[in-house]
Amino acid sequence: MNKRKKKGPRRGDEAEMDRARIFDERPCAFLWCLHCGRTYRWGEFRERDGLQMCPYDGCDGDTVMDGWRWDEVREGNPDYPKVPKRGHVYELNRTPGNIAEEFQRFQRVSKYSRGLLPQAQAAVVLGLSKQRVNALVVAGHLHEHDFFGKNFIAASDIAKFKAKKRRNGRPRGSGRNGEVLRVN
Ligand SMILES: [Zn+2]
């Protein structure tokens, strides 16, 4: 009786997307993933740790921060079809028009994630090397978000990561008053 969720594109029964709630965004037909360059239908995603991820296996993009509306991508490449080919990798061409939309999304995402820090600066805040931060991103412990061709880390992720580090580290009675960040 219960219809199992299929992996492929579904029609008609679109799932509720977090981005609609978070950004008060109207649904569109297709989204494009900034991480893998492929498109998917509104309502498609893979659920991972409570996040709605890009539906393509192995992609670490999520649908909230890394999904562009297909029309914004087409703005930079008017030759791209209205209905994109499934699984096809489409290059992004940034134009003044879609950069303005990107900036609006940057502001919304920034608000939602309590700020975005360029990756190099995130490494400084975490007291880690850039290589270590890269490794943490690859391992899925931190998520990076590309805006304007640069990598950003969400402040909420940084805070979570620091809290975890503190929990796992040795308890330090002396550091009560100040924020003491110990990274070994
Ligand atoms: Zn993807």
Number of domain units = 2
User: Distance between termini?
Assistant: 53 Å
Main pleated-sheet profile: 3 strands, antiparallel
Average pLDDT reading: 85
Low-pLDDT runs: 1-12, 173-179
Determine the fraction of residues in helical runs and give it as a percent range.
25-40%
Q: Overview of this structure, please?
A:
- It is a single chain.
- With 184 residues, this protein is of the alpha+beta class.
- The chain folds into 2 domains: 1-96, no CATH class; 113-165.
- 33% of the residues lie in helices and 15% in strands.
- The longest helix is centred in the middle third of the chain and has 17 residues, at 96-112.
- The protein is globular, with a radius of gyration of 19 Å.
- The structure holds zinc ion.
- Residues 33, 35-36, 38, 54, 56, 59, 61 line the site of zinc ion.
